[in-house]
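Moderator note: this is an archived Q&A kept for reference. The question asked for a predicted structure of one protein chain; the sequence and the answer are reproduced below.
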Amino acid sequence: MAFMSAQDMMQIGGAVAGALFNAFKNPDLPEPQLVANLVWELPNEINKINLAGTAKVSAGGVFVHAQPFVACKSFPKTKPKSVEIGDLLLIRTLVEKKAVVERRALLLQAKKSDSIPATPDNKNQWHLYEQWPSFTYAINSGLLKGKKRHIKEPDMYDAAKYLLIGQCVAPSNCRHMCCVGWPCHLLYKFHSDICCHYTAQPTKPEISRYRCFAEEIVDFLAGNAGKVFIYPPQRPRLNGWHKVIRDLIDETAKAKSVLIGRAAGVSGKKERGNGTLSFMISTTQSPYYLVVDGNGTANSDTTPPKVPRDWSQGDDGRGISIIEVIVEKGESSTLS
């Protein structure tokens, strides 16, 4: 971000490093719990930042353990018949003079991986991310069921990626091929074992362009990663990527209102344990959030709620776990 100083960017890098360390320090946890940890930890760390100038950065997140599934006629395998559209959606909103000037998103499919290079085990999900053919939301997708979508926009390898959560500790002299724009040796100032987590483009015959996940997040917050989207889509030609992101945002907002209400005990219908299925965290108020409403946490715990291993999705609301970051440019700042 050209309107932020090097010191500000180091603060952001430190927040990202701290969040990844805390979220993934126990890699033996199941993937949903690791995602829940990240949704909890990253906003917490970002909201501790005090930038030197007039720029501001704030964050919030919502975890929903019930993703939409999609089916495609061109799947290479007969099973599974439908696959998750993703595990985590990152959203970054840039605000200038109290007006939203850009929104961008990064859709992630989380997988635990011992090492790189890695090979996805779900060929149908890989096919979806590699080609983005015409697909239909499957029966277990809430109100999206039966709706057809087709993403035709270019640069989808930058928009939807694999998140590979490592189960190793990177050496202190890490020189992985992923460390380019935001060198890991800077982040090692904060934590030395965050460089075993990567993003990768869903290319074939092998996934490729591995990047340090910490670097990916920092670049995303700087507006140099992910893909721009318009919300809500206002023209028919925006019905691809833009429409799918709106699907995920809108369904998550619905699921959040239902599940968090139950978790907080404000609804007598199908109440669950406190924070069992869904939680929302935000310590800041901002009118620019799409899903997070800035009203605090749905439970009073100081750690992410535990995601039960045997949880049954049933007929609860659908959505995708979302981390939203609002970057507000200071009035006297200039973008290059």
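Archived answer notes: Residues 6-328 form one domain.
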